[in-house]
Amino acid sequence: MRTTRDDLTISEALRDPLIAMVLRADGVKLEDFKQLLETAAGKREPRPTPVGKMIGPLASRANLPAMPCFG
């Protein structure tokens, strides 16, 4: 069950019947498509976590560095 994510995960995309039909129609092997998705995911910048989204604005308001230091 997905709650807030709009994009399919790689696993979900590989199991999706509509994607499978398009791949077959285009003559694309599932393994090749999987490799393409994994390569693209590796090059993509990671999404900030919900906490990460909050830390930056809060830190800038308080004139603090965005990364908290614990030490």
Morphology:
elongated
* Main β sheet profile: none
Q: What's the total count of β strands?
A: 0
Q: How far is it from the N-terminal to the C-terminal residue, by CA?
A: 39 Å
The value of Rg in angstroms is: 19 Å
Sheet/helix structural class: mainly alpha
Q: What pattern of helices and strands is seen along the backbone?
A: HHHH
Number of helices: 4
Give start-end ranges of low-pLDDT stretches: none
Estimate the helix proportion, in percent. Answer: 55-70%
Q: Mean of the pLDDT scores?
A: 79
**In what range is the share of β-strand residues?**
under 5%
Oligomeric state of the chains in view: single chain
Textual characterization of the structure:
The chain is mainly alpha-helical. 61% of the residues lie in helices and 0% in strands. The chain has 4 helices and no strands. The model has no long low-confidence stretch (mean pLDDT 79).
Short description:
It is built from four helices and no strands. It is mainly α.
Any key phrases for this structure?
elongated, single chain, mainly alpha, 71 residues, 61% helix
